[in-house]
Amino acid sequence: MNDSIFPRDERTRTILIVDDERTLVQIVSKMVEGAGYQTLSANSGPQALALLASESVDLVLLDIMMPGVSGYEVCREIKATYPDYLPVIMVTAKRALEDKVSGFEHGADDYVVKPFHSTELLARIKAMLRIKAMHEQHQQMLKRVSAEKSKLKAVFNSTRDGLITLAGDHPPQVSNVNRIVTELFHCKAIELIGLPLDDLIHRCRKTFREGDALATYLRDPNPGDEVCKASTMDQVFEVSRSPVVDAGGVRVGEIISFHEITKSHQLAELRDDVSHMLVHDLKNPLAAILTSLQVVMKSQERQLAPANVELLESAYHSGLRLMGMIGDILDVYRSDASALLITPETFDLVQLILEAIAEQRIFSTEKEITLEFEPLADVDASYRVLADRHKIYRVLTNLIDNAIQFTPRGGIIRVQLDRLADQFQISVIDTGEGIPAEFVSKVFDRFSQAEARIQGKKISTGLGLAFCKLVVEAHHGTISVQSQLGQGSIFRFTLPIPTS
């Protein structure tokens, strides 16, 4: 027989042959060993059980009719003593149907009637060992899964964020919670696991000050990347939701995360309070300085040398610039508490742009930067808008000032005005250093700062651009930026065209 058909790992298997006929044991042993297996032999049930207790056996060939303890009893004892899969093939002369049924009822995995053909017996041995190998692989996989599950459980319970997992759809129910959540809700895990979403929301209402807002957020079927703030008496959390999907991409659950931001929240409040205090303390002295500079320039202009007049004008415009920054900080600060106050009036947008350019020209001239206003395609068209003139003026000066700061000496800044279908679009285009790609999406964030070392300078996105975003959106417009590092930037914002 060509024994190469038998897998290599099966040849190391050990088979226990149990039969009171010694000659038959020798014949079967020789046949099995010829197929590449190792063998052990026993001539009685007790001897077989003793060998099983001391040796490693992979399969048992068991006769039924033996003196003393029958094969049925031995088989039942094997199955009771060895819970791991140990296949038993009964090899017997008993061929009646009831004998076969009795063998299977006592736990036999297969049944071969004497006399048998060696090919059949070896095929049955191979099949049983294949099943045993599959069982062993399955057990190993279960152990690995159990180990990974234990690791995940350890991570789940040791993370600093509170985690709640939901499973099911109609309605979703709490399937697990970690230690942080039990401490947050002042209860045991068993009190939360199994709760429908509505009951969980009810507990959230009692736990957090922002219960209604959190309830709305948790019920939202498509929250996307949005988060919700929730606070207790002494803690502040950022609540987020993440879907759980299976290997096929099907949503099978959800994770609700409670990330504590108490310290950062307190620091933000302190920062705002300090900023507000400093701004108010700076505004009055700065106003006095500007007034004094105006008085000196008007009363002493003829007596002063041209160079000194130029210095005074530079100081005055720098003071105006600083006053604008203070105004930005105040408006951004107020916007956290209430809507930005807008005082609309009708004015000519072209004239406002020219005024903003005139104010900023002193700074562009210092850097030898060309600051220009692109001629209009239709000079006869009306460019009147209904908006807060003072705040739109500050948006323009902020954007132009920002371009001047980050455009190298000798560069070009172009302000462009376009009339679209139902809105005006103002663009400030520079040939500056550009913004790193990873910071482009953050330039309008409040109190954010992105720094990149380019020719020894910093690229900064701070309150000025945050203020611009607040003002433009308060006018129902949009603001955006396009930038490529080393190629310059384009800031655009729109204002609605008033209806007649």
Taken together, the total number of domains comes to: 4
Tell me how many strands there are.
17
CATH architectural grouping of the largest domain: 2-Layer Sandwich
Spell out the CATH superfamily of the largest domain: Histidine kinase-like ATPase, C-terminal domain
Shape: elongated
Strand order of the largest sheet: 2-1-3-4-5
Tell me the number of helical segments per DSSP (H or I, 4 or more residues long).
15
Kindly describe this structure.
- The termini are far apart.
- The protein is α/β, with parallel strands linked by helices and 500 residues long.
- α2 packs parallel to α3 and α12 runs parallel beside α13.
- It has a five-stranded parallel sheet with strand order 2-1-3-4-5, with helices on both faces. A five-stranded antiparallel sheet has the order 7-6-10-9-8, with helices on both faces. Strands 12-14-15-17-16 form a five-stranded mixed sheet.
- 47% of the residues lie in helices and 20% in strands.
- The chain folds into four domains: 128 residues, Response regulator (Rossmann fold, 3-Layer(aba) Sandwich); 103 residues, PAS domain (Beta-Lactamase, 2-Layer Sandwich), CATH 3.30.450.20; 71 residues; 152 residues, Heat Shock Protein 90, CATH 3.30.565.10.
